[in-house]
Amino acid sequence: MKKVAVIGAGPSGITAIKNFIDQGFEVIGFERCSGVGGNWRFNDPSGHSSVFETTHIISSKYTSFYEDFPLPESASDYPSHKELLKYFNDYAENFGLKKHIHFNTEVLNCKKTDDDRWVIEWKHMNTDQINVQHFDALVVCNGHHHEPRFPKYPGEFAGEFIHSHDFKKAEPFADKKVLVIGGGNSACDVAVETSRISQKTVISWRRGYYLIPKFMFGLTSDIFALRSRWLPKFIRLPFMRFMLEMLQGKNEDIGLPKVNNHILATHPTVNSDLYNAVRHGKVIPKPDIDRLNGKEVIFKDGSSEEFDTIIACTGFKIKHKFFDENFINFEKGPVRLLHKMIPSDINNLYFIGLFQPLGCIWPGAELQSKLAAKHLAGLWKPDGNIEDMIEKEMNNPDVEQVKTARHTITVDDFSFRGRLKKELARTS
Asked: I need a surface site. Which of 77, 101, 217, 382 has the fewest CB within 10 A?
């Protein structure tokens, strides 16, 4: 029986463990946190979690579940982190996964051996003892939301400068002047939350972003979007933009930067509150930052203001510290993986969940896991040269997006799922 190591027990990791077990493999999972759930473990002692007190998922319950384990009917339209953590725990309990996982452990190093196996060094978080184990295959599910990316500006800031990764609740920012950097989901949520108790909250955008409300015409926004997928993209994208502007107006009308790209050129920001906060004077829009000088921040429009705290909601680096950088390093270059999971030159290494869907990640990760497990079992193989297939994927993205590090791994959620299901249909 082949022995498989799975790094990470978040939403991608637990479905990988489940599906490799289903194919008859001996599976051992390694998880830094004290339980399953990954980013959805609010305030886990490991410090890994990226959610904060009021976090809700930005895709709805109607599109955000494992195929073989639906969300309960009682779940909120947009489940909270508490609901989701219970869901992941229930999934792990239902399939008996926890007994296969080493919790509170850190994987230190992964190396390929001369006999085409893997040697993994790991330790428990509260000891210095290094353990060594050998495996026939390695499945990497540690995600891409744990190495904060900080912006760089001329000068230095004399106040508190933190990343959204370390933002857990608004309370510490009471009566402070707060500057939030970014226009993504975390930035908008943080700005709204701090504005409730801060002396002042300002949000700085370097470019325009579309703000998609969570509900459109009585439907969750993802279901509304699904109902228009039959339209050709050249019609659908302008139609979606028109509908947004009809519902809530234009950015430039309320002081936010004008959007100069199509609606999917950046990762969707699903937020129903920021527009209201701006229009009520609770959150003040500002352009990009020019430089820092003590507690003073000078913006690109020439204006300046002093702040107590800057919260950078500027994304994360794709990092795999347990690999030698000369072996695998996706931090600066494109992620060259077939179906966002299989490298061209290694036949027993899989990456699960290393993609950014325009939707929910774990349904796609579940399908990746099923396909990867069948690949290792010899029940599926790519229909062509892997390197050529990767090149075709890279040259034909689901959607053209702005050229930033954040958008190197974007897929259209339902198109991606469709491709994986098509490959699964070829399995024996």
From this structure: 217
